[in-house]
Amino acid sequence: MKNKIILFFCAMFMSGFAIAQSSYFFQNEEVKAGTKKHFLVPIVTGKDSTFIPVSVFNGVRNGETLGITAGVHGYEYAPIMGAQKLIRSINPQKLMGVVILVQLAGLDSFLGRSPYVSPVDKKNLNRSFPGSKNGSNTDKVANFITEQIISKSNYFLDMHSGDAPEDLMRYGAYYSNSSLPEISAKGKEMAYALGFDHVVVFNTDGKAYMKKAESSLYCTAEAFKRGIPSVDIECGRLGIVEQAAVDKVETSVLNLLDYLKFLPLSQPKTQTVKPSLISNRIYTSSKFDGIFYPAKKAGDQVTKGMKLGHITDYFGNILQTIYAEADGLLLLIITTPPINKGEDVTVIAKIDQDLSK
Ligand SMILES: [Zn+2]
User: Fold this and answer.
1) What percent of the chain has pLDDT over 70?
2) Dihedral sign (CA 79, 85, 87, 91)
3) Same domain, 109 and 148
4) 126 C-alpha vs ligand 1 centroid, how far in Å?
């Protein structure tokens, strides 16, 4: 009889009954197991206020928590529209664990159609982490994401694209540091699982923002500093909505959920992509204010010395010709006319020989 009881409990455990998910509480509100709930979280400062739209998916089985942010830059539309699709494609009835999805971290930038910075306080949210409870809208939004999303996550994903002037290649990315080898290795596996053709490694060794006393500045860096395996998506370009990029954002998040075993009740996907790893990026900046004429587009193969574009003054006189400083892939190129002195005009990616995958 005793053996039968043990067998019975083993069977329950195997079938998942013994690890049924309990309710999840977000902003003191209950999200029942197997359901999703949407929140408009008010962010109120002394003189301004904003909201953060957040969707919480609570699975039917116990598990870990994945935090996701879209719209940290509110003019980067592909991830924002991808997150809209995820409202329907993440099924809490088939989920294990909890997904907290920030639909639009930078609502001021989104509604104000403002690249890079909030039109309200002129701050770049992705240079404002960990934020502050007593600052402006952007500081408070960063603080909320740090305290209410990142600190509650076992894994973290921040989703971006090329902003309004940026033609950008799609890629997954992960944070790496030699003092955090296991967290870095897990991040690498997550980045590979996203399913992009290219994976960029952000090597943070020696970076000031990794020091305890320094601000993390970047959303993902805040998570990584806390020992959370952390990845980024860059998918989409020029602040436009291309359906293929939107679909790719959605698919890559579902790939990640699958890899992290949040979707044990769904059909497993086959990962066929073997990405190229990029650890070395070469930046070329403008020496002048003026008008930029691009000669290449993101994703083009370039060789050292090749012309990538030129900058003129306001009367058509050439001030600077931009040449490729190395062989590689053109990861980013500015493609709209305005250019400011000191801005990065192009980024070339060198492809590593990564034999580990
Ligand atoms: Zn961005």
Assistant:
1) 91
2) negative
3) yes
4) 7
